[in-house]
Automatic annotation (TrEMBL):
It is found in: Nucleus. Keywords: DNA-binding, Nucleus, Transcription, Transcription regulation. One of its GO terms (molecular function) is DNA binding. InterPro entries: B3_DNA-bd, DNA-bd_pseudobarrel_sf, LEC2-like. Its main location: nucleus. This is TF-B3 domain-containing protein. Signal peptide: none annotated. It comes from the Eukaryota. SMART domains: B3. Residues 2-107 form the TF-B3 domain. It comes from Salix brachista. GO terms for cellular component: nucleus. PROSITE patterns: B3.
Length: 128
């Protein structure tokens, strides 16, 4: 179960999320292309579609999440210092089913200007 977590930066909240190259191993195959779409379920069981892309040219792939990322960041009200985690979850379906991913957000907690930890993002309460 490959995963990664990182502290959110200004670029992550405004443009794209850079991801470690090791995360590419857990994604669906790129089939010779430079981008692949995948879905991840959040703590509210909402499914989000993201696109992971790499540079077309150059020595370093430098993977990023672009498509779907800014919508997610906006809806979750991500701020610099928050933490995001993507992980490959167990798939209860067949071996031929697409991989199943999860995404989790933790809010940075500060006391007197110093980070003292993180707290899980509380589930959204939907009004009727």
């Amino acid at each position: 179960m490959a995963s990664f977590s990182k502290r959110i930066t200004k670029t992550d909240t405004e443009k794209r999320l850079s991801v470690p190259i090791k995360f590419l191993e857990s994604l669906p195959p790129f089939h010779g292309g430079h981008a692949v779409d995948f879905q991840a379920k959040d703590e509210n069981a909402e499914v989000w579609t993201f696109q992971c892309s790499t540079r077309k040219k150059g020595r370093y792939k430098k993977p990023v999440l672009s498509k779907g990322w800014l919508r997610f960041a906006s809806r979750k009200k991500l701020k610099v210092g928050d933490r995001i985690e993507f992980y490959r979850a167990r798939n209860q379906s067949t071996d031929e089913s697409p991989p199943c991913y999860g995404v989790r957000v933790e809010r940075e907690i500060k006391l007197l200007g110093s980070r003292i930890g993180y707290a899980p993002l509380l589930p959204e309460i939907k009004s009727f």
